[in-house]
Amino acid sequence: MITMEKIDYVISVTGAEYGKVREALLSCDGDVDRAIRMIMGEDDAEKEQNEQSYDFKNAKRTKMEDMSDSISNFGSEIIDAVRDFWEKGNATKLVIMDEHDEVILNVSMNLGAIWTVIAPVAALMGVGIGILSRWEFYIYLDDGRVVNVKDYITDKHRMR
Fold it and tell me: Residue 140 to residues 58, 90, 113, 117: CA-CA distances in angstroms?
């Protein structure tokens, strides 16, 4: 915050004009000492250092960020696929199995849909963990068919 007291103090120390002092204080976020150094020409080294600092906004995305986004997108697609089956009304239960075909979660679709609505972030995190752990997501339909959700999503993408 820039106050008249700060401006007056910098003017009295440096003897600079009001406009120059105001600009210096604005560029230094109201820091009187930095503004004085800037006006006196001693802040050049600090300015160069700031220009050479790493620009995070324009940096290229890392592989980890790309992977995180793809997992998040795939997790959202799994949740959307489960919702599609639930909205059709022909799904009875959701079963999640690990890579050794051991059941991790076996839940009624009604209960699973309620929890997805109540806690969507937790559901997305759980799906993300499942994807990383190579779990399989199965939906049991009321006519006895079993749908692998990952295969359903893959087929859905092929049809686009």
Answer: 46, 9, 14, 20
By residue count, the chain amounts to 160
Annotated domain spans of the chain: 4-40, 67-159
Query: HEC profile for 6-35?
Result: HHHHHHHHHCCCHHHHHHHHHHCCCCHHHH
* Cβ within 8 Å of residue 117, ≥6 positions away: none
pTM higher than 0.85, yes or no? no
Residue 93, beta-bridge partner list: 108, 140
Max CA pair span of the chain:
87
Tell me which CATH code domain 67-159 carries.
3.30.1490
pLDDT at 123: 65
